[in-house]
Give the backbone structure.
Amino acid sequence: MSQRVVDQSSILHRRQLSRRDFLTYMWLAAAGLLAAEGGIGTVASLWPRVQAGGFGGKIRAGDVDDFPLGSLTYFKEGRFYISHVEAGLLAFYRKCTHLGCVVPWRPDERSEDNLAPQGRFNCPCHSSIFDRYGLVHAGPAPRPLDIFPITIDGGLVIVDTGTIIQRAGFKESQVAKV
Ligand code: FES
């Protein structure tokens, strides 16, 4: 009569291996999920943020035709103005270059530029005055209104409110040609 000999230690070893394998797979799966999540987050953070409103990213302001020559358009959510001067479009940060008050556009005030008879920025805090180019005409403001880069893509005007540009005066290189 043959006798079957079962090696108990071998079965135990196999069980331990499979348990160990299971734990290894779990760790690998968890690490893979974390890596994927990190990768997706990194890609998402690198993706350009083009949105309809909101300060700090790239904002779709509208079509080129929405901004006729001499017009001033306020984007409250984006915290900027778009001014259409002869050379093209400028996007001004609404923050006064003196102490940072919000500078309102006053369409009924006498103009300080030659583009139109009326309209200028009057800072309510210490009376600085800026024209359609953002240039200072009165008050303590030390420099023109800061600007944001504009790109025009297929007729769509996009303002990058994540990049603030300080300037000493007006140059045609500051505008987006239309
Ligand atoms: S904050 Fe605008 S003039 Fe002082």
The first strand starts at residue 50 and ends at 51.
